[in-house]
Description:
By secondary structure, the chain is α/β, with parallel strands linked by helices. It is built from 13 helices and 13 strands. A 7-stranded mixed beta sheet has the order 2-8-7-6-5-3-4, with helices on both faces. Strands 9-10-13-12 form a 4-stranded antiparallel beta sheet, covered by helices on one side.
Amino acid sequence: MSFFRDNIVGMEPYVPGEQPDELGGVVKLNTNENPYPPSPAVADVLRRFDCSSLRLYPDAMAKDFQQAAAEVLALPADWIIPGNGSDDLIIMIIRSALQAGRSVVYPTPTFPYYRTQGQVAGCDIIEVPTGQAEGFAIPIEALAKAAGDVTFLANPNSPTGAWVEPDRLDWLAGQLDGLLVIDEAYADFAQANALKLAARRDNVIILRTLSKGYSLAGLRLGFGVARPGLRRELLKTKAIYNVGALPAAVGAAAIADQAYHRQCVEKILAQRERLGRELGERHCMVWPGEGNFLMVSPPGGDSKNICQKLKARGVLVRYFNQDDMKDKLRISVGSAEEVTAMLRAWDAR
C-alpha cells in the first residue's frame, strides 16, 4: 500500500531546465533568465537590510511590495496577490478552483506546470493542441469551446513565443463561464499586456513574475492581479507567510526602478532580433516570438544532437523530448556577448 494518493503516485513530476552547480564560463541560454544583473536599487536594499528583523515573521501580504507593484501598474493595492514566484499563484488557483469532476484547459505545447498541478488536483485535463502549420498560433476559439472551469493561457507562450492580442483575450474571457488565467511571465518583452482585463472582466486573473524582466529568478517573487472577490477566495489557500521579508523588500525596489527595467528590456529585444536574424541566415526556421527566447528548428531537425554538441562547447539551450518539439530548440536571449558565444559554438559544432 502506498502512503500517497493514486494520482500522485501515477504522475510524472515537473522537470526544470538544467542548472549547473557552477557556471564557470557556461553560456546559460536554457531557462529564459535575464542576462543582466538586477537593478542597482536591489544591491542597495541588500546592503541596508536589517538582518535582525529576520527573527520576526514578515507581513503576510508583503505590503511594501504590494504597494510598489500597485503604484507601477496603476492598480489598487488590494488587487495584488504576492507569491513565492508566479508558480505559487498557479498552485493557489488550482487549489481554490479545481477538483475531481472539474476541468483545466490550456493550449499545448506550453508551460507544463499547468498539467502538473492539474494532476495533483485530480481534475480533468483538456489539452488543446496548437499546430505547426498555423505557426503555433493560440487556438482561441478551440479554448473557448473546451469550456474549462479554469483556462490557463501563457501570453506570450513558452516554448513557442506565440502571443495573442488583448482584444482576443477579452473575447475569450467573455465566452468562458470559468476562470481565465493569463500568465504574463514574459509580458515585459511583448507588444502589449492584458492587465486592463482584470478590471474589465470578473473571471480574469493575471499572473506576473519578477524572474524574467527584473532579473530576480533566484529570489522567487511573483504576483497575481485580480478583483477583490477573486482575491478573497484565492487567499484562503495561500501559505501563511509565502513571501519573506527580504524578497518583499528587494522586489519593491526592483519593480520601482522602471528606468533600469526598460533599459534591460530594450537590450534584450535588440539581441532577440539579432539572434533570430543570425540563425535565419544559418538556414534555421525561426518562429516569431514575443518573449525573451526564440523557438528554432535547425536544418535537418536534429535538435537533440545539436543541443548536446552546444553543451559540449559550454552553451546550454533547451531541448524538449516531446512529439511536437523534437525537431526544435528553445534558445534564451542572452547579452550581446552570450549571443556571440552561442553563434560561434553553433558554427563550430
